[in-house]
Amino acid sequence: MTTTMKPVTYTIDAAGRSLGRVCSEAAHALLGKRSAHFVKNEVLPVTVVVKNAKKLMVSDRRSKGKIYTRYTGFPGGLREMSMHEMIQKKGIAAVVEKTVDGMLPRNKLRNERMKRLVVED
User: Fold this and answer.
1) What is the pTM (predicted TM-score) of this model?
2) For the chain: N or C, fewer Cβ within 10 A?
3) Residue 66: inside a domain
4) Please, which contacts does 19-26 make with residues 24 or more away whose CB atoms are closer than 8 Å?
């Protein structure tokens, strides 16, 4: 059963709001839970645009205390980067994308859903 739904665009204004609340709203919309056509095993034609990402409220304690880790695959290859460093190097959009990515289920539809997220500074 395939649903025929017209493409929908949700716009989220991030000015003055916290990172977690904006990202959870975006993840909820990307999953398609705002739609009456929601199906677990399909990616709905929903695009989420996050505007004013630079105006997000991120406390200093969070930006310096939150550590993102990744592993290169080599011995001794554990790399750490704080949220403050990531904002400096990659921008706030990378932090928003990583946060939304962590809120989506770990399955084959995750990459397709993440392609439908647009973060504007």
Assistant:
1) 0.92
2) N
3) no
4) 19/56, 19/57, 19/58, 19/62, 19/95, 19/96, 19/99, 20/99, 22/50, 22/56, 22/96, 23/96, 23/99, 23/100, 23/103, 24/103, 26/50, 26/96, 26/100, 26/117
